[in-house]
Write a structure and sequence with these properties.
By secondary structure, the protein is mostly beta strands. The chain contains no helices and 10 strands.
Length: about 130
């Protein structure tokens, strides 16, 4: 059974950078879309970014376009989220998950994704 583990979160100052990692194990990863989501207390989980199986297509939520970059290394079963120019409103728990929804994955709807990791906290504060 596929398992995902997120890491790389922490405290960053506004304008700073962090790189999140999502490590996959226990299953085939190469043909799955991978998404990054975030959630703050009292709010729904929202899609931040997603990437196609071979990495040729990416998708970003409007508020992170130009600041976040998603990438993957299928040889290492890893997906990364590079976050630059961080803002206080980026503060959240970040999760990765996978999807076989080949026609709708770009909408980054949480119910289309599964095998959620435990999340990693990102806090942006001065």
């Amino acid at each position: 059974q596929l398992q995902l583990v997120e890491s790389g979160g922490g405290l960053a100052q506004p304008g700073g950078s962090l790189r999140l990692s999502c490590a996959a194990s226990g299953g085939t990863f190469d043909f799955l879309m991978v998404g990054w989501f975030r959630q703050v207390p009292g709010k729904d989980r929202e899609g931040v970014s997603a990437i196609s199986p071979m990495g040729e297509m990416t998708e970003y939520e409007d508020s992170v376009k130009g600041r976040y970059t998603i990438s993957r290394d299928n040889r290492k079963n890893m997906v990364y989220l590079h976050m630059n120019n961080l803002k206080p409103e980026d503060t959240a728990v970040y999760y990765c998950a996978v999807s076989e929804a080949y026609t709708t994955w770009t909408r980054m709807i949480p119910t289309d994704f599964h095998s959620w990791g435990q999340g990693t906290q990102v806090t942006v504060s001065s």
